[in-house]
Design a protein that fits this description.
homodimer, alpha+beta, Arc Repressor Mutant, subunit A, 2 domains, WHD_NrtR (chains A, B), hydrolase activity (chains A, B), 24% helix, two-stranded antiparallel sheet, Nucleoside Triphosphate Pyrophosphohydrolase, 9 strands, 5 helices, DNA-binding
Chain lengths: 249, 249
Amino acid sequence: MPAQVPSGYDPRAFEPFAVTVDLAVFTLWENRLHVLLVRRGEDPHRGRWALPGGFLQPRESAGAAARRELAEETGLSAATAADLHLEQLRTYSDPDRDPRMRVVSVAYTALGPGLPEPRGGGDALDARWVPHGAQGPLAFDHDAILADAHERVGAKLEYTCLATAFCPPEFTLGELRQVYEAVWGVPLDRPNFRRKVLATPGFVRPVEGPPRLTGGRGKPAALYRAGDATALHPPLLRPARPERRETTA
Amino acid sequence: MPAQVPSGYDPRAFEPFAVTVDLAVFTLWENRLHVLLVRRGEDPHRGRWALPGGFLQPRESAGAAARRELAEETGLSAATAADLHLEQLRTYSDPDRDPRMRVVSVAYTALGPGLPEPRGGGDALDARWVPHGAQGPLAFDHDAILADAHERVGAKLEYTCLATAFCPPEFTLGELRQVYEAVWGVPLDRPNFRRKVLATPGFVRPVEGPPRLTGGRGKPAALYRAGDATALHPPLLRPARPERRETTA
DNA sequence: ACAAAAGTGTTGCGCGTACACCCATGT
DNA sequence: ACATGGGTGTACGCGCAACACTTTTGT
């Protein structure tokens, strides 16, 4: 710790810390949750799949770095990248998480509607949407980061309006429901979901105009836009798993 | 960003980043929420109150640094500091948050039962428990960190068993309820709170033995210990306030 | 006697769940 | 005609807010 240093910081504090951002980018594609991965072109873990990310620039906040890397390393258009919902997840700082040097990484979670196929950019060999759960072991501690990100997204769907971030500007309630079903991995009751969403003020806002077909079949659905609310009161809890039993007999 | 570098990282990535931890330590004292603050002995902000914290050592994770600083800079005994519940909050990385150099800070939240008065240690002139809300403007961006920490703790009380971290090993349900009341700033209905807690499996575990007096008055209360559960299903929602704001930055 | 805090009982309403049912469109 | 998805209606039951009430201690 910095002890009796009259002015300035302890020089030992200036060990070569590198600061990076890592991104867990989720999207929905054909009703399945996908995550954006890049194939590393450099050692360590050359050829392994990893989360996109990179170093902070000298006068750049971690959030700004995350948005820049999102555009650069994935080849998504600047407009597409700017529309993504970006949120800090947590920071990973284990001394041995990078075998070569000390790297502290601030992880971010990004969400977006059905997105175009990315191209590898920067030092990545390739970039691809991979169905969540189908990815092999990732480089560094990225498996843990991805798991944390998925858990966080699932939890935030319960008590925030985050789900609209997965949807295009105009969407149907069926599409919104599929966000929940894809992330949580459970089917939801359609009528109840509809009522719950519409009963939450500011969650969605109806769009004037004709309905739209969704899956090519069925009755055309009314369109909605994201509202201005940010929190859900009361929350939309995921269905209780069968394992837990309550003793209220 | 690191572009075509055949091996090793881009040298520009090694800008002098310093990595620190900052701590928002809460406790309950006379039924009021208090925060641990230190008075800075060094510039910048010499003499101003601030959150305790310090630099990461070369081979130390942020969590380890947080626990070390907690003991060192506050003068709390090692045993006391080890008992505190410690949890990562988020990372603050604005390039201008420290006027002299680039400092990225990983903030932590710590909770503990009624704690002894701390002594200033390290480079702090003084260390003190300050009633939450009564602190003046803090150094750096610590006002924002403290506000985020308080919001996070309040939210986590709703859906986790975090409240027991504010209590000594053995506590009464009245003491547990005062945790909620102090953090949320609202009174709760005693009978309903009791039923809710006891109906949640694993939240608390009764202790064999005689009851204990709490405030010196009233009927002695049964004692409980923290259970092994970590999450609350269903959550214990705070009473509907007129309105609440969310800060997503 | 009174105050203060623990603990028990009871009632009513709201919301969530689980359905049944009709509507509109494509094949 | 049938499948598919959107949208409406409804009934049951749990959870919880809201009290009223008893018990046990200190002053």
